[in-house]
Amino acid sequence: MTNDLQQAPELVCPAGSLRALQAAVDAGADAVYLGLKDATNARNFAGLNFDDAQVRDGVAHAHARGAKVLMALNTFADARDAGPWRRAVDKAVSLGADALIVADTAVMGYCRDEHPSLRLHLSVQASATSHAAIEFYRKRYGVQRAVLPRVLTMQQVAQVIKHTDIDIEVFGFGSLCVMVEGRCALSSYATGQSPNNAGVCSPPSAVRWQDAKDGVQARLNGVLIDCYAPDEPRGYPTLCKGRFVVDGRRDYALEEPTSLNTLAILPELIAMGVKAFKIEGRQRSAAYVEQVTRVWRAAIDQACSAQGRYSVQPEWAAMLSRHAEGQQHTLGAYNRPWR
Questions:
Q1: For residue 329, what are the β-bridge partners?
Q2: Pairwise CA distance, residues 242 & 25, whole Å
Q3: Which of 210, 220, 261, 295 is the most exposed place for a label (fewest CB within 10 A)?
């Protein structure tokens, strides 16, 4: 935990299951984030997420060890029936969640009116990329923290922090999103379901793996996304990370399967005032959560106590490489050499 380190940012880790939650807390997470087993959260995969009893057990485990539980209600409510989102808010309060991660203004308004003491975090799905947008949510709905989309440069992050009183949380490690979060239309184009309200980039019912003479084809609702050699590693198929033929060349046309990794710039982000680092991966295993959390716990502790002697340890890099998409790391938008 970071309680004994002055001004240390929070380490916020993913929990797609009770086992993953326990692993994250025991490995040193300051907070974990989870979702219910429905479309109110943006990782609505079969076999993942929490029922009421599991939330209670997770909250008890976390609170007993000084950690917080954040509940993600970060999809956009159905205009025909916002009831599930409102009931999820009420449930989060009754189950003892420390804060909600919310994207929809209607859901925020319900929280403000019905549960005014409930802490609200602005989800990355809200796509708030400027301090003016973030200040709107603070003044109108009482939001106390904002999670920034993974499209801002270091200078832009610094400007946001300088001009808002809200705590700022950034992604530190995990899968990237090619879209400005909350505005994805790719999945809905192919399947009729958007991750903004259905909770998954590629609905399992639309995913097909088909054997072909040149390998294994990955399709999404009939759309050919990629073709893998028999011995080639293959990840969960999403349109933005498929390989397509463009001008006669087959390659990743939109986004390569690679993971964001900000360990190299961790001291700079802390110095500019980032209050929390989020690890992506509620759909990942408990082993992933435990190992990545341990690396980030050690890195944050060193960055906050080493007084200029911080360095990325080889064992940290090796561990994160094993869990990175395509075994590749990037600083993403934080490092744009052409700027």
A1: 259
A2: 34
A3: 210
